[in-house]
User: Which sequence fits this backbone?
């Protein structure tokens, strides 16, 4: 490939500087958020990866001992980690499907003309848990699930229904945690769906109705394709959110019962608390790599199915 002449390269640099100057207001507003992302996002990730390559005994010292990929080999040979990883992936898939389906269904109902009068009340009611502090909300859910004095089992007893195992049974703990997380997160996904529904081209629906399209056909071929941006955004965000599920486990289950909710984030936290810093950060780095891979895969999939 022939080298670019010096005048051409100089011209390109001048054009780039001119473009940056014309967009200086944009960069001025972006700069604080970029700085925060680097300081509190990228820098801690880089430090975590560095610690994962060191011996735990010296990981936090000024001159750590580097052991290469030894911590990763130890982690990948740990049967508890492998089980925890599969459990995390399964729970994340279940939680993403449940949250997005629920959020989309609620968004459709609120967007319906029949609920237009009270739509603001329903929007606030469903979005309020999103801004509720995680710990406070999950503490309340833990009380609700309590088999001795919890409101859920009290109501079931009054209705003559069998007691709900809640957080104390391996058969029900996953669904119990899932319900609590759905309560906390679904309002966020609902808001994104509602924003996309408000921006859709309703003229296409009117034209389809004139042509005799059924309700299902309008949704399948007109509305859902227009919701692709919201679906992709929610899919990526929810995948990241539920792969790193942590707070709900700390507050409600502590990884139990029988390690059923011992997800990767909580298991790494346990190892870190035991001073096994290298292995804990290696787990966190592996989980981070999985999150990035799945997120990029979702974006690539959305581009591949986009309009040609």
Assistant:
């Amino acid at each position: 490939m022939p080298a670019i002449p010096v005048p051409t390269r100089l011209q390109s640099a001048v054009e780039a500087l001119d473009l940056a100057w014309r967009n200086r207001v944009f960069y001025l507003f972006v700069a604080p958020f970029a700085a925060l992302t680097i300081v509190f996002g990228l820098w801690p990730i880089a430090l975590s990866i560095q610690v994962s390559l060191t011996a735990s005994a010296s990981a936090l010292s000024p001159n750590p001992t580097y052991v290469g990929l030894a911590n990763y080999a130890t982690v990948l040979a740990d049967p508890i980690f492998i089980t925890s990883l599969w459990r995390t992936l399964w729970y994340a898939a279940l939680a993403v499907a449940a949250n997005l389906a629920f959020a989309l269904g609620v968004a459709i109902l609120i967007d319906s003309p029949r609920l237009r009068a009270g739509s603001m009340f329903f929007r606030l009611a469903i979005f309020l848990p999103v801004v509720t502090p995680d710990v406070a909300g999950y503490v309340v859910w833990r009380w609700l699930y309590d088999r001795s004095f919890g409101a859920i089992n009290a109501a079931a007893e009054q209705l003559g229904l069998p007691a709900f195992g809640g957080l104390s049974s391996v058969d029900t703990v996953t669904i119990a945690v899932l319900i609590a997380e759905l309560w906390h997160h679904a309002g966020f996904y609902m808001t994104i769906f509602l924003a996309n529904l408000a921006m859709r081209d309703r003229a296409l629906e009117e034209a389809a109705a004139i042509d005799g399209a059924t309700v299902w056909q309008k949704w399948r071929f007109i509305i859902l394709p227009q919701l692709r941006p919201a679906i992709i955004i929610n899919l990526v965000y929810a995948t990241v959110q539920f792969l790193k599920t942590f707070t709900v486990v700390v507050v409600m289950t502590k990884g139990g019962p029988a390690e059923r909710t011992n997800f990767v984030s909580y298991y790494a936290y346990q190892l870190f608390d035991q001073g096994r810093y290298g292995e804990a950060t290696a787990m966190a780095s592996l989980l981070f790599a999985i999150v990035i891979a799945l997120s990029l895969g979702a974006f690539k999939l959305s581009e591949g199915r986009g309009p040609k």
Observations:
- The chain has two domains: 1-52, 71-304.
- The CA atoms of residues 204 and 222 lie 7 Å apart.
- Residues 1-52 form one domain.
- The two ends are 31 Å apart (CA to CA).
